[in-house]
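Need Fibronectin type-III domain-containing protein's 3D structure for a figure. Predict it.
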Amino acid sequence: MKIVSQLCNFFLILLLISCGSDDSPVATEDTEAPSTPLQLTASSITETSAQLSWEAATDNVGVASYQLYENGTLTETAINATSFAVTSLSEETTYNFKVTAIDAAGNESGASNTVTFSTIAAPLRFETNLSDMGIYTGTFSDLTPADGVQLYELNSTLFTDYAKKQRLVRLPNDTKLEYNNSDLLPKFPDNTLIAKTFYYYVNEGDPSQGKQIIETRVLLKIEGSWQVGNYVWNGSMTDAVYSEAGSVDPISYIDTNGETQNINYVIPSKTDCFTCHNNDENTFPIGMKLRSMNFTPSYVSQNQLDYFSGIGLLDGVNSASISILPDWTDESLDIFSRARAYIDINCAHCHQPGGPVSNFGLDFRLETPYEGTGIYANRGEIEARTQSNIPSYMMPQLGRTIVHNEAVVMLLQYLDEIEP
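Structure prediction for Fibronectin type-III domain-containing protein:
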């Protein structure tokens, strides 16, 4: 037994010596974070999604995954690639994203660069009710533009039986009207909305008595082409309904002289709208030319083009280099400038090359030299037709039912003074 005890003690000593001389490495905790992911970019941006991509991070052990932060909030924690499709976004909304790398020990890298983008708008369409078009906010009959909808005015305006007009434009987020190398129409981005609302004051001598709102005409630029639509207001002026059919709306109002005026106001059909806005089978806006907006409007105390540039709606335009459409009502101007301005805004959309009434060889555009307009040779027709109310003979044939008396006086003076 003594020998057995001694052997046990011997092996115990050997075991202790063996354990005491164990020089195998001891595992240490991984505290080193991965490198920062670089070059985060966004592509394939749609109304509700975008594709994010970045350069891979490195780690002393290995990158386990990536995390995604949306507008500062962690939204994804187990991305196993260097790209990721973000979905369920809201259209026309600005987003900020960044990514970090995570290793197996849970160490998180620094954040990548932040990528910022805005989702695009879904293609516009004509809704059944004007209230669903996003043009107005608050009490509908107040005609208060919604956020992102901008008022604009024109220096000389189209005559429509003395109706008042409110003109509005809305551009998609992060887009601008762009200079088109002329003082005519700028370049409009897709999903531009232009609206013009026609109304009369119940009493022009006292606008506080309210309005009689009749119609809102809308132009939408959809996938490169302009589409026209019209909304007819209900009697209580709480909304307007899309309509492609023309109609007549009897209107009675008190003018600035205190006299009652009765108008059989004609609401145009969709075909009528195409007639005026068509050139060579393409549809375009008429009024929103740069030269027509190059003045100080009533709603702001600076040049309108400069104002649009300042609020980020217009790019590449120096108002000083753009011509100015004369105000035909300004009697301080010469009769020739006034008449040409009136004829341009009221007649030239039909009487020009490519226009719907181009077979008479007339070109009433302001930019056309006088000798090429045909005004002198047709001065008798212009005089007669502008004073007529015969539907098939009067000029313009669309947009009015009564004679524009003040303009006729001015035009007759002009036609009497012009020479060949």
